[in-house]
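Standup notes
- DV: blocked on the single-chain target, sequence here:
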Amino acid sequence: MRKGNLIIAVVVLALVAAFVFFAFKDKFKANTGGTDTATSAEEGVGLENNGAKAVKTQPKEVVFNGIEFLPSILEAKKGDVVTFKNTGEKNVWPASDLHPTHKDYPGSDIKKCVTNEKTKIFDACGGLKTGESWSFQFDEIGAWTYHDHLSAKLTGTIVVK
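- DV (later): unblocked, structure below
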């Protein structure tokens, strides 16, 4: 019986390790400077200059409905602009993890909200009222978690490939 329990434990541990690896592999992968190139007009709008290659980007949206961020996990390409829109009845302040410093996304820091760099950080730098939106361009590859600074238990993830 002990041998059977050991085998089950090893299998469960392997499954958990595989899940963690695949869920967060982009967060730990070094930025190689590679780009994804759209091949047709339907794949993207907006044109970003990335060295010698032109990369088409697709507009993306995360909606806060007053209860949660939807979708809770959003996939984007490097260079995509993600718009956070508040359709709920209370204010929401999307910002990079970790709460309360907002330093997870490279270059971000809540202290920069009162500087000229505030447009370059993954931080709305204030609450969005009902109907308001805020946009951020993701130029770093990885899985970027974020939260509502006004209610830090509300979270989401932007996965940039």
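- Follow-up: The domain at 41-160 is CATH 2.60.40.420 (Immunoglobulin-like).
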